[in-house]
Design goal:
about 475 residues; mainly alpha; two-stranded antiparallel ribbon; 16 helices
Length: about 475
């Protein structure tokens, strides 16, 4: 085993939080999920190595804290009443998915699949289905997520500010990612030395840190490639847009919206750009409709002003984009980048390979009578295609049921959503749209943290507060 340079700093930080400030461990869980391409410890596996991510290291500490608190309190905190149905759907999904990992590879052995262990894409051809270490790893990863969610519910029963601290963790992660992005952009121009090797050291991923389009390098650290990086940033940006349209719209939120929007361009990834654009259209059209319906009220007039400013900003951004594309000195390069990232994407070789992987996923569903090949068996381009081809139709229905009932709980209360709630539910569905477009990893922590934040951000009645906390030496 090899302790990485990043691990030398992160592991002591995580231990210090777990021992002396357990109330901030939920924030560290969210913060650590951003380091998808980073490893704290590399473990040799066969001819290669497996990198333990910061998220997995933090999740282990969260699990130990959960066990200690459960033992001390003689009880495991349950979700608040409004969240029990979506939590039950999610638990059912986890049970089906984990069971499938150890059953379906034997039941449907020989079915052609795109091996999940192939980290370089879908163009290596199919492989006959068999039970592999990937099934065990993916089942363990999903179990980790469920344990983390249980820890977060336990933490919420002890303290009412868990959701707020998770937002602090997310904000810190966003600031760090934008700082890395702008630094590496300058490094790509020769201003100073790049630190990509520090942020992107996980041997379990193909690290695309030197890929460029028309001379513009795609800055993706601390993620491994553009689709992952833009998925995360798109979710954050859309959540901020929802807050600026329907929430309190403070000056720092507007500044964050613009800054994250600029950072979203940095990786030059179509996945997040399309998801952010689609969600922005939904939010703007919804806000416009509501401003017309409620025009006579005070809230309606305030919303109308925001809508007008939003459409004006959209018009200015479109005019600037057209100028940069057609009349600016950098026009030819900009045109090539836009063509490569967006306009020609559907006809590219990569798109055809991805489409073929999704078609194969549907074929797997048919070949396995809707039961799937087992969690960790098949890799498709789309999250949904991967989900149904691995866990079957029942697994897909349970997962969608969890997200659907969770979202419904936000609006069923008939109360005005606060800023954190607007952000949580919008970020959840933006990230879901993005992973549906082009993310094969069913257990990507950078996606699951938005599921966690949506669960913890709900304003329903919390579970009964535990009278005595077992964390006697830890600060809240």
């Amino acid at each position: 085993m090899q302790l990485t340079t990043f691990g030398l700093g992160f592991i002591p930080l995580a231990l210090a939080v777990a021992i002396f400030a357990r109330g901030w461990l939920p924030a560290l869980v969210v913060f650590s999920a951003v380091f998808q391409a980073t490893s704290v410890l590399n473990v040799p596996v066969g001819a290669g190595a497996f990198g333990i991510s910061p998220y997995n290291a933090t999740a282990l500490l969260a699990f130990l804290v959960l066990v200690w608190r459960t033992y001390s309190l003689r009880a495991l905190a349950s979700p608040p009443e409004p969240l029990r149905q979506p939590a039950s759907w999610l638990l059912a999904f986890a049970a089906i998915a984990i069971t499938s990992a150890f059953v379906m590879p034997f039941l449907h052995a020989g079915t052609p699949v795109f091996l999940l262990l192939n980290k370089f894409g879908f163009d290596r051809g199919t492989t006959p289905l068999s039970f592999t270490v990937s099934n065990v790893v993916q089942a363990a990863n999903l179990a980790v997520h469920i344990c983390v969610l249980a820890f977060l519910f336990q933490a919420r029963s002890l303290s009412g500010n868990v959701s707020q601290r998770m937002l602090y963790g997310l904000g810190t992660a966003v600031v760090l990612m934008l700082t890395i992005g702008f630094y590496e952009r300058a490094a790509s121009l020769g201003v100073w030395q790049s630190f990509n090797a520090f942020w992107m050291n996980n041997p379990g991923y193909a690290q695309l840190h030197s890929h460029a389009i028309s001379g513009f390098r795609r800055i993706v650290a601390p993620f491994s490639e553009a689709s992952y990086a833009t998925t995360f940033l798109a979710a954050v940006w859309a959540g901020l847009l929802a807050v600026c349209l329907f929430g309190r719209c403070r000056p720092w939120q507007l500044f964050a919206l613009v800054t994250v929007g600029i950072g979203l361009i940095n990786p030059l990834g179509s996945t997040g750009l399309v998801a952010a654009g689609a969600m922005a259209a939904v939010l703007l059209l919804t806000a416009t409709t509501l401003s017309i319906i409620t025009a006579a009220s005070l809230d309606g007039r305030a919303l109308r002003r925001r809508v007008i400013l939003a459409w004006l900003a959209t018009l200015i951004a479109c005019l600037f984009a057209v100028w940069a594309w057609t009349a600016s000195p950098a026009g030819p390069s900009v045109k090539k980048v836009v063509d490569t990232v967006l306009l020609d994407k559907l006809d590219s070789g990569s798109a055809k390979v991805r489409h073929r992987s999704n078609e194969q996923a549907m074929q797997i569903v048919r070949d396995t009578w809707g039961m799937g090949a087992g969690l960790g068996s098949n890799r498709a381009s789309s999250y949904i295609a991967s989900l149904v081809s691995n866990t079957g139709i029942l697994g897909l229905l349970c997962f969608v049921g969890a997200l659907g009932t969770l979202t419904w709980r936000y609006f069923a209360t008939r109360q005005t959503l606060g800023d954190s709630q607007l952000f949580a539910v919008t970020a959840l569905w933006t990230s879901t749209l993005a992973v549906t477009l082009a993310i094969p990893d069913l257990n990507l922590p950078a996606y699951w943290i938005f599921i966690f934040m949506a669960f913890l951000g709900h304003s329903g009645r919390r579970g009964a507060r535990v009278a005595a906390s077992p964390d006697r030496g830890a600060r809240a």
